[in-house]
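Standup notes
- HV: blocked on the assembly model, inputs below
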Amino acid sequence: MADTAPFDRSGSLVEHLNIAPSGSGPLDGTTFTVKDNIDVAGHKTSYGSPAWRDAHPAPRHNALCVDQMLAAGARCVGKAVADEFTYSLDGESQFFGTPRNAKAPDRIPGGSSSGSAASVANGLADFSICTDSGGSIRVPASLCGLWGIRPSLHRISEAGVLPFMPSVSTVGLLAARFDHLEAATRVALRSRPNKKAPLKRLLVLSEAMEIADETVREQATSKLGKIADRTGLSPEPILLSQLLGEDIPLSDCNTRALRNLQTAEFQNTVGSWIETNRPGLGFTFSMAYGNVQSFDRIAALDSIMRCEQLFELINAALTPGIVICFPTTPVIAPLKGSLSTLDAVMDFYDRTMTITAFAGVGRLPEISAPLLTVDGCPVGLSFAAGHYQDEFLLAAVHEMVG
Amino acid sequence: MADTAPFDRSGSLVEHLNIAPSGSGPLDGTTFTVKDNIDVAGHKTSYGSPAWRDAHPAPRHNALCVDQMLAAGARCVGKAVADEFTYSLDGESQFFGTPRNAKAPDRIPGGSSSGSAASVANGLADFSICTDSGGSIRVPASLCGLWGIRPSLHRISEAGVLPFMPSVSTVGLLAARFDHLEAATRVALRSRPNKKAPLKRLLVLSEAMEIADETVREQATSKLGKIADRTGLSPEPILLSQLLGEDIPLSDCNTRALRNLQTAEFQNTVGSWIETNRPGLGFTFSMAYGNVQSFDRIAALDSIMRCEQLFELINAALTPGIVICFPTTPVIAPLKGSLSTLDAVMDFYDRTMTITAFAGVGRLPEISAPLLTVDGCPVGLSFAAGHYQDEFLLAAVHEMVG
């Protein structure tokens, strides 16, 4: 293993780094990058925004999750491009460019952890530490053909991570190999190594399958057949309403719950800073931010209550031993530059977030596995489990497809 | 109910406010104050530090928890004094004074939610929204004779609350009456009103009783007898090692686990800001901050792993139906100015945090009830339950002592 990463020709990094491990452990010999909303001591954190970067001094300490990786033997080789204020799922930054989707170079990498995904997919690092609020790890994992985990909400310390949406945002990881994802995640989760649970049932979230393109659905069904052969489990299709015992469509998780909590919290964090400082904003972010500015947080408090109720219902159903499966995204990566019309943006975001909001509102651990290929492009198949069942989920995914 | 609070003669407030409710609901006719590390739109948030206040613009939005209270019918009547950077348990601010402990005026109110507690105890408001990391709600509740709740970690949104210790800090409430505490807490928790669970066992944390002054212990034992008469439950003394099935003393929760996580996270948030900006600091905070500066975060990563293990063990034991009881603080409020020697500070902090770290590391909901009186001064009796069992705990406390 070289002491430094290869030179970045993929547009993944904002900065090459070479920070030696501070200790030795399960990550000896591995390398990692850090999404540019997570602090590395002495290096400015841009949050995907040149204006933010220029207005804030460099942090004095590494984020705690970065220290965890260094102490476990990993070497930090760079800071990775993020979408502006991490408020996007597409990975086309007006300021920092579009990191190369290694397996589909004419397509977007997905965001907001675009550089994290590209740095791993292009061989610059074994894994990347990043964040996910509405899908920012899971979407680039799916579109770039990587392993990605959004752990249970707040399982990993957010000390040294820029506040984004405090009730939603979560630190997680991307990796090209499952063994790297598993090892680095276990370090971050601070797990006891011997923790295990038996896999009993494999549910399939029917509405997520229906939302997906037919080609994605066919691939997912085929893969589920292979998992059934390998494990002896019969995949059980289930509607959200059947899972919860209440008449709630999957789309509620996004449109009537999580989306409004996200917007209200974003008003408090980045919104307040923008209103006060009036920084230069990118075109795409400006469009999205218009909706944030006009959002009525008081009217949305009922949605925030619904988030809590959905959390309770989902976790009453997802008892230990149960895994629920669905396509990570409904589509392969859109072509670069194709998200330029409102219709195209709406179609990509609405369908994608209908799926990603399920684990978001459930505060569930979700692992996206690079198992599907449609038209030569990757799509992820996701597995989720109950809140705080991260270690069970890692073991179950290892058993099914690892 | 008057439209404004009485004029503050207790030193509780940094600012009188009169913000009308935005809606109507279970908090109609009530008033509340807001700890000065929680945003109120258009008013500077000081974090207990004049330097911080002067360096930061006023927020553009209320914290989400403030909006929740206003929408449920409560009127906001002021911002309440907090200890410098909320990094203290005593409530004697060099900058904002020592808010009056209404029931023991020659004694400290406790901190860091000193003004929140004093505003309620001195009749300026029905309840206060505040925060607790190491005991900042529970300690002033105990020392001022109030009801206080530190909910399960992150149950209440932290959007608009200054980041302090991201894996530890929690929004909670103080009130003079249990019905106010319960109603406001249920609004903040976004609970379904019909949620209930039966109370099955009442444990008593033996080491916390042993740490307490003999007079506090006697009062607590007497009160437990009355609870037994009322509920028919037999209080069961239990050591932490018996509860967990592993040989772990209670003091480990603080000294070998939570304290180091708190210090590492404080380095990332306030510490990084102080190192960069070199603001004027108060004497007491400066002394405490010296330990933060010299802290070796890498060496403490094992303690952070221990936090996760203690969380798992404690919550495997505290299944639904179980409440565990202990004195909130081991002592009544120290006399004002008495925490001026290192021995006095160490004795107060070490004994107090040995108890408060139990719910901290367990991420447990804890309610401090104003049930004990020693030498004419109040002391709290605390009740805790498993993580996310906040609604059960509220109902159980209502049944036992509400």
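- HV (later): unblocked. The CA atoms of residues 239 and 356 of chain A lie 15 Å apart. The longest strand of chain A covers residues 366-374.
- Next: hand off to the docking folks.
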